[in-house]
Amino acid sequence: MKRFIRVCLAGVLLSSFSTVGVAVAQAVVKVGVSQRDLGAMDPAFGIGNGDEFPIRQVFNVLVGPKDGTSNLLLDQLQGELAETWEMAPDARSFTFHLRKGVQWHRGYGEVTSDDVAFTIARMRDPKTGSAYGSNYREVESVEVPDRYTITILLTKPNPFFYAFALMPRFGGYIQPRKAVEELGDAFRHNPVGSGAFTFASYEPKQKVVLRANESYWDGKPKIDTMEVLFLPETASRTIGFVKGDIDMIEGATVPGWHPSLKRQKPDTVFDAGRPGGTWAFHLNMTRKPLDDLRVRKAIAHAIDQSAWVAAYGDFIRPIYGLSPVGFYGSMDKDDVPADDWPYVYNPEKSRKLLADAGLPNGFSIDMFVTEREEYKSNVLIVQEQLRKVGIQINMRVVEHTSYHNDIRRDLNSMIMYGSGQAPLTQAVLNAFYSSAAIVGKPTRNMNFSYYGDLAGNSDALMDQANQEVDNAKRIALLKQVQIEIMRQVPSIPMPSPAGNWMHSGKTLDIGYPVQSYMGTFTLAKARRL
Predict the structure, then answer these.
(1) Cis peptide upstream of residue 513 (ω within 30 degrees of 0)
(2) Same domain (yes/no): 445, 504
(3) Which domain holds residue 173?
(4) Which terminus of the chain has a lower count of CB atoms within 10 Å, N or C?
């Protein structure tokens, strides 16, 4: 009898240990991002993709494109914190009805319309110092009629206001009033959201660790733990991915890298989406000799877009306006003016313009660029092309987060910048060419050239385009404003690459097919294979 009891007890213990073993076996997914360290996980201050990837997992927006798409028409969106929404017929107000019962992480209570109102006020406030403040400059007031309803009133009509102020791209994420006010500056690296994953820990220059949100409103994620690894070197990310130590990586816009990766790891799923991001080489018109239009035109005429196509193949496509082909309101080849267009490759004309500007031997100029490969590659191509007409760029490489901070402090003369803006020409104009978005102003956005205060101003035409309710008229106005800006050459639009993430088809199913996306995407529906 005693032996029987011992055998039964042993069986119970073995069964218990087996159950514990199953429970402990975590579904862990590792994601490698091209960033040396975390800048901030506060949506008001996150800058690079290495910031936004974990932000996207921890926070929710009101509404966004359906997973794996970048469709932005109001009737094409899917709700996150909002269940339903509507725009007023005059496009001067938007009302959102919140999903009831959604909880903030770590016991901070229910997500309510007060949190949405707080987020908008915080993002708008110049004292906050968010780089995305200008996205909210058209907000006149916010009404909170009850706990789950919020109406945003605008100073003027804007049918696409939501697309660059409330969507999943940096500043659009809703933040909890109580946690932000309680945690203060600590919120930057100790965030509280409502998303599919909760913040667990941060190891400087190593990783951010996230855990599945057990009570997520859309169901607990199948991934238990996510590690976002900071791996700025392409070689490190590639080796880890090929070896199977990393499940998903941010790709590199480097000649030959994509076909090489496919050969090394045939199961790679390329989550590449069109129309991709925006790239431009911005010319700081407060610096000599860039204050001279002839010099800026000379730079534009020295740039040959075919160099990028030759280097990257079909991964990259030419650009004809300020937004990539495929963006709402973008310019096509047929929209380019026939008369004296600055963006036609003509090195002889470039040299003549320099001579006319009193620089027959060209000039030398200092600039710094981030260590990220796609930035360096772009600048190296520009550097070589400008060298041929006598312009010498003295390039210094800096850490990625420092780069973003310093260009927003107006410390650079020429700024290479890539961004996963919403695929709307309005969003590009708002961020880079509105006078309200000039880096030296309280909004601290990304108008690095000072266009609007220097060498032209298109604010009125932008406003007209934003307010136009008729689709055909709005698109025509957007093309008109691009032409007006580009004639002053505040920047050189760069050929547009496809979206650039990839995951292992053997270890990870992200939960939906990827056609396009805005910078990064959620892994709320992903599962480890």
Answers:
(1) no
(2) no
(3) 30-200+500-528
(4) N
